[in-house]
Backbone:
């Protein structure tokens, strides 16, 4: 399998090619804010950062820091070989709707119990997602939910040609 040439990280940056597989999880105190439909959907300094080789980080937010009244359980499910079966939420605010915009692990696999019921959101489906005030860019590709900020470099899974990585 051909892997791309990793971009060398600059000062204060990290390369997603230094992230492990299986993914690592880390509690972080970064200020995470998710906005949708003109409303703050989530606001926390108690997120869990998941880091996996070739992917920008994903931030999982504790349910107590999310407007769950705007989240409706979806019948959609996916399976991660590391974290287990994911369930999804559709987010609704007034006239705005984002189907399957957030996912969580109600019964995560061993080693990922810290993620139980924490919710991650696809930045591409939200109005904005920020990390310490910086607006994130979505990880390329329709399937992926990574959060790209200036402190992480790729190339990232999901970019054209990355299906062979």
Residues:
């Amino acid at each position: 399998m051909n892997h791309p040439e990793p971009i060398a990280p600059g000062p204060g940056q990290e390369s997603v090619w230094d992230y492990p597989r299986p993914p690592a999880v880390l509690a972080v105190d970064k200020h995470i804010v998710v906005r949708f439909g003109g409303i703050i959907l989530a606001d926390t300094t108690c997120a869990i950062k998941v880091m996996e080789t070739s992917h920008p980080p994903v931030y999982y937010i504790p349910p107590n820091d999310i407007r769950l009244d705007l989240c409706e359980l979806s019948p959609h499910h996916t399976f991660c070989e590391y974290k287990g079966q994911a369930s999804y939420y559709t987010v609704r605010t007034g006239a705005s709707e984002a189907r399957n915009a957030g996912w969580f692990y109600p019964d995560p696999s061993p080693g990922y119990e810290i993620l139980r019921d924490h919710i991650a959101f696809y930045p591409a489906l939200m109005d904005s997602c920020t990390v310490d005030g910086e607006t994130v860019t979505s990880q390329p590709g329709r399937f992926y939910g990574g959060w790209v900020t200036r402190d992480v470099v790729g190339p990232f899974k999901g970019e054209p040609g990355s299906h062979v990585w």
